């Protein structure tokens, strides 16, 4: 189970003695998300939080209890990253048995130039939006323009939007002072409460489309006149017709009307929608504070699109995948990001990205690859340095990216795309199979262990081919290379240090994740580290830790409260009060 909403079934199954084994994977903790949304130093104070008090103060105590009971009653408890494992240990009071990184269904192209062509096609569509949004107010060279973006749910601090906007202001200052001719258009794609599209945004796209249609119509007329002139040429007239012969007065008048209709005297709008609460919107307030108003002198322009992307959108008519492929850099300086699918999607689509060491994806790539920045995966330190230093580091990364040549950016996209096998479910999905088997081993130890305590399948679960196929996970580009860390899960930071016990990669090949004859070897060199513990001790004796110890057992008072809550839930489920 992957959510506290469904996790209620776990303690109910345990209470009713239903013969089922359970695996609970937390993708974030409820209390952690609430705490990070406030202005607290979350990761440096995890061990000091009074979790019951904090949950009650925020009105989520009942939901927190459900999440915690699911965590302690599950046979196997896992998380999606080691940063979340550290968080779960302190907030949910159980150390995870392992880490199951999230993956993606990776579709590899037959040739590298195919995804580069997709980038060019999608970029052309974004260019059309930029023309409608900015042209008429002023213009700039689109061939010398870079598109940056951040996206996700509207969590102003958790997603690092505050840091992103502050860094954009500093980037704007540096580009102006350096005399750079590069223009940066930064998109913020985060759904928020809105009323409708702004009139200015709709008008810009409408008049631009009208101009495009008029130019296309005039082009067709000029082509017809040029063909007619060439077909009637007998050597007596001049060979080339004059512009006046091709462009009639009617065409000139029509073209002038369209051009003058495009002209506007205001600045381009920062937001594409009418916000429901414009005055109190955190993103707009910070944009006002740093004074990024899309002035003609600004080298950094901002477009806040508070809605989901889809191809039927009258303003920015692209699906999310198309939009990502058309951009040059994704920026996700998250403070709370248990995994982070957005930078992972960028990697799979060959788009460089910036993330942080507080995101699960950032920790995963930082630990798996020696020099991720060489592969187009830039990681900002938000853990061991001040906010000011983190903002400066992000600004420096973005400024360095703007100084790259077009060839350098193309090469970097190629290198990023080669990392996609690291995120393929064909490799990462094996860990889920291992978690399920571990749950079975804990629930039914007699089926796996003899009377002497030895593993019945000892030979089958040998470690002879533990690192078999290590080249499979090596990125296709250098100098980055996976770290051979022995028996450790990708992204391990010392959180899970127990030895492997009777679980081996070879036992899962060709079973849960079958492949075709065209697939490469699906072996995975970093097996999930898990420790077998008895089923009877999973609740009453505390959760086992990788170090072999156990967390403090629940007190009698805690157990009575939990039992009363479960009884209440049990009565509600069966229609009793």
TrEMBL record:
Top-level taxon of origin: Eukaryota
Listed PANTHER family: GLYCOGEN [STARCH] SYNTHASE, GLYCOGEN SYNTHASE
SUPFAM superfamilies assigned to the protein according to its UniProt record, in alphabetical order: UDP-Glycosyltransferase/glycogen phosphorylase (SSF53756)
GO CC, alphabetical: cytoplasm
Reaction(s) this enzyme catalyzes, per UniProt: [(1->4)-alpha-D-glucosyl](n) + UDP-alpha-D-glucose = [(1->4)-alpha-D-glucosyl](n+1) + UDP + H(+)
Protein name: Glycogen [starch] synthase
Pathway(s) of this molecule: Glycan biosynthesis; glycogen biosynthesis
EC number annotated for this UniProt entry: 2.4.1.11
Native organism: Agrocybe chaxingu
GO BP annotations listed: glycogen biosynthetic process
Keyword Disulfide bond included in the entry's annotation: no
UniProt KW keywords: Glycogen biosynthesis, Glycosyltransferase, Transferase
Any Pfam family the entry gives: Glycogen_syn
Region (Disordered): 537-558
Family: Belongs to the glycosyltransferase 3 family.
Keyword Transferase among UniProt keywords: yes
GO MF terms held by the record: alpha-1,4-glucan glucosyltransferase (UDP-glucose donor) activity
Functional note: Transfers the glycosyl residue from UDP-Glc to the non-reducing end of alpha-1,4-glucan.
Enzyme class: transferase
InterPro entries: Glycogen_synth (IPR008631)
